[in-house]
Amino acid sequence: MVVPETLVYGLVLLSALAHAAWNAVVKHSAEGFLQLAMIRSVGLLIGMALATQLPLPGPEAFGFLLGGALFQYLYFFLLTHSYRALDYGTAYPIARGVTPLLVAMAALLFLDESLLPMQLTGVLLVTCGIFALILKELRVSRGGILLSLGTGIAITGYTTLGAAGVRAVAHPLSFVAWLEILSGAGILLAVLLTQPLRGFAFARTNLLRGSASGVLASGGFAIALWATSVMPVAAVAATREASILFASVISVYVLNERFSTRRLIAALIIFTGIGALAIA
Q1: How many angstroms separate the CA atoms of 39 and 203, rounded?
Q2: 111-152 confidence digits (pLDDT tens)
Q3: Where do transmembrane segments lie in this chain (predicted)?
């Protein structure tokens, strides 16, 4: 079945909203790592449920699964540490801001995927809009910035490997399910080995929030990864970085941070870039 590109972009925007929401939950949890572990545990359960209904991805996907899981572990580590070093409204845009161009370069080098002129224009506009958002933030902690930039590199790694994986198998959802299993099992094991009692206590008191965030995280990631099987991975990655706009809205209306004219102009640039991608 051929899926209209406009529908794909709409779903990716929903994925972006889900991503901004669960990241806000992790940032503002008293136990960010345990919150993240609970979210990934939900992903593990969802992945296991899907895996029982689908065939195995096949040996050609094993390397992509392992590499994608390793990059996700790195992402989880850097994400939680960057949130300790910087505010949500700073760490999140920097991490996501470097991703569109990095993914475009990785897709060109490793997936032999080039962009049409309009798509490249869209990626560049999104990137410019993102950096317009974070320009003021470059005066903050150098260590925090490096952690956030490392987070963006990890995102590029698992996005590129995930795109290669879903394209290498007959059933993309099967690849997504097993990646959820591997990434969830790894972080759950880390909690069980280091702080099992605190982990169980946290899960009991945060069951509803953790479960809802886990569904958002797994659903949003599955949509984005599936989208890379039918669209250029750089275009999908750039569109998903609209999550920075949603994060800005969350920071203003939920966290009571100030909304500036610069943010409004940056938002218009990003939406123009997404529009260019959608009509390319």
Answers
A1: 10
A2: 888 777 877 787 788 778 777 766 665 566 678 888 988 999
A3: 6-25, 62-79, 91-110, 116-135, 147-169, 175-194, 206-227, 233-255, 262-279
